[in-house]
Amino acid sequence: MRTVLGALLALALCGPAAAQALVEKQVFAAGDYRTRAGATIPNVRVGYQIAGKLNAAGDNAVLINHFFSGNAQAWGRYVEGGPVGYWDAIIGPGRAIDTDKFFVVASDSLVNLNVPDSRTTTTGPASVDPGTGKPYGMRFPVVSMRDFIEVQKKLLDGLGVKRLAMVGGASMGAMQTMEWAAAYPAMIDRVMTVIGAEIDPWMIAWLDVWEAPIRLDPAWRNGDYYGGEPPVRGLAEALKIITLQSRDPEWAATLGRGPASGEDPAQTAAGRFAIEKWLDDASAARAKTSDANSLLYLARANQLFLNEYPSQAAALERSPQRWLVLPSLNDRVFLIENMRAMVATLEKQGKRVSTADLVGPLGHLNGVVGMGAHAARVAAFLAE
Amino acid sequence: MRTVLGALLALALCGPAAAQALVEKQVFAAGDYRTRAGATIPNVRVGYQIAGKLNAAGDNAVLINHFFSGNAQAWGRYVEGGPVGYWDAIIGPGRAIDTDKFFVVASDSLVNLNVPDSRTTTTGPASVDPGTGKPYGMRFPVVSMRDFIEVQKKLLDGLGVKRLAMVGGASMGAMQTMEWAAAYPAMIDRVMTVIGAEIDPWMIAWLDVWEAPIRLDPAWRNGDYYGGEPPVRGLAEALKIITLQSRDPEWAATLGRGPASGEDPAQTAAGRFAIEKWLDDASAARAKTSDANSLLYLARANQLFLNEYPSQAAALERSPQRWLVLPSLNDRVFLIENMRAMVATLEKQGKRVSTADLVGPLGHLNGVVGMGAHAARVAAFLAE
């Protein structure tokens, strides 16, 4: 635990950006896990990080769930000068989700995307199947989003958490949050969903569109590419669709309608526009830290969102009373009208819902990168 | 030309659906064409159809431009019982675009998508290069949307058309219409754009996303698949993205969140949801009547929309005074806010703009299938 003196010293020496201690990515051994669909995954491991201190009653915990391509790094740095967690603006000592008061937990999803990152140790299709000594590939069992929650529940049990003062997350993290709210309402005080709502058939189809480039890449080899050349082209194209849909025309406008430097798309079929080049480079870089099969399993888990309930409204009905819902106005993944509809459903069910719109040029991503502007709202929600 | 008696007879015998005579798809030999970028395409041919009669002054013509995956069949049937043109509800004798008054022309775009359709004879990458005796493939020169218009101009000149009472179209047809309005404003009386607006960098990037599955399919072979197996998987995936983006969540909801018949996506990674199966089937069927290289060339022509003008506003500034703009409220291709912005630009430039929103469950496609509801508006615009 960090001391006040240490914090002041760090502040004095390094300024606010370095005020937080480094975070350690840890591994939880969850044992054998039986999926909701009935398959057994031996020796499941899940990566996680914590901050703050759990009180004696075990009821001051906050669980943060990550978005589709994310991982447990919701706050802090693993090494000096390294990248900072995506919600660092609202998680830390004295911040909205105050680690001086709350015990904050964030875990990798099962079948996490960031397999090539050495800190991603969570079990998935790239893991070695102890039964064969080879990576599972597409022989890994299908997992649902509820399975993510069940593995997290084992982690929380292992950490001694009895109650969650809040569970929250952005995008797929909001979806996991809704699964939590339906599965374990009695142990949750508050639910915070950011840029995430119910998933509809339209979105089920888009998830399939995200997957298609991987299946088309001959290097995918039905998922048996481990140890050989991974399907980086297909994976990059998949990540390109996700990147584009997670942003907005306002962002795109900054790149203009012109060609990339040295390219002439009016003359040559292979010529690239500036925005194409930006997306080529961004998605190629992302592909290096991502795993294609894991993307397919993540997409399926999203498609199976709340699949154990007769309807999504029925799942929401089971949830705790207090909600904070933060949609992004120009979201092209979770359309604003769907997020409004979810708020209306919750209110009709008698829940107490606070809501505010995220505004910014980045569309869906406003909920990942723009949370600092809503820190006071999050703090107030936790103080309710 | 059909007689009134003939029309009454047809009506009496067959009912309104068969009231129009069969349409003949014709071929125009445009000669050698030099592209705006400076390449020469020998012996360009373009498919087209006409209805009504051109008057002596040659000034009662209406030109209809088609959408991305469409062709010249804007109205009528080629054979008894065959499919009817997409805007048949508003084009014909006594209809909004009255072929008893107007000489209506519709042509295939250069590089038209529907190559396997024997009535599609328009020159493109699947055509034989007379210089080599083999299909062009990706050696076909890049063409811009302005090139589409220049080839159509040759067709209109060949038909003796001096003035256009109206030029109009849906989606890419609206874009071609805007190219026409900027290129030949002095010969156009009215401009009608349906579900189409300016193209922005966001859309340039989406066009690249549409293309990616084709380039990933090993059967594509850099475009040299003619005579062998075409890249139907990649082409189908490309068409799937276009189909999905051209529709709307309201439509998707009719297919539900459940699995396809006999499938169990909660158990098997290859299992399909109902909406995935619908899109699989629809896009596989569409792939059989489409050509992959032509899709790539069409996408590029769209990316090069109005590329000869300093800005799209500058192109609109050059256009005729009278506009009818019909956006679709839930359009996911041409976002409603962009269409509103185009109307605002036109009004600021002093144009006379009528506008009304298309409403329906099909998103972008409301402008292709839902025009019957706006027939009176189109007729009034033509009577102005």
Description:
Two copies of one chain form a homodimer. Chain A is of the alpha/beta class. Chain A is 34% helix and 16% strand. The first copy, chain A, has twelve helices and twelve strands. Chain A has an eight-stranded mixed sheet, with helices on both faces. In chain A, helix 2 packs across helix 3 (172-183), helix 4 packs antiparallel against helix 8 and helix 5 packs across helix 7. The longest helix of chain A has 16 residues, at 201-216. Chain A is globular, with a radius of gyration of 21 Å. Chain A starts with a helix and ends with a helix. Mean pLDDT of chain A is 93; it is low at 1-18. Chains A and B meet through helix 4, helix 5, helix 6, helix 7 and helix 8 of A and helix 4, helix 5, helix 6, helix 7 and helix 8 of B.
Please outline the helices and strands.
The structure is a homodimer of 384-residue chains.
Chain A: H1 4-14, E1 26-34, E2 40-51, E3 61-65, E4 91-92, E5 97-98, E6 103-107, E7 128-129, E8 134-135, H2 145-159, E9 164-170, H3 172-183, E10 190-194, H4 201-216, H5 232-245, H6 249-253, H7 274-288, H8 292-303, H9 312-317, E11 322-326, H10 336-348, E12 352-355, H11 366-369, H12 375-383
Parallel strand pairs in A: 3-6, 3-9, 4-5, 9-10, 10-11, 11-12
Antiparallel strand pairs in A: 1-2, 2-6, 7-8
Helix pairs in contact in A: 2-3, 4-5, 4-8, 5-7
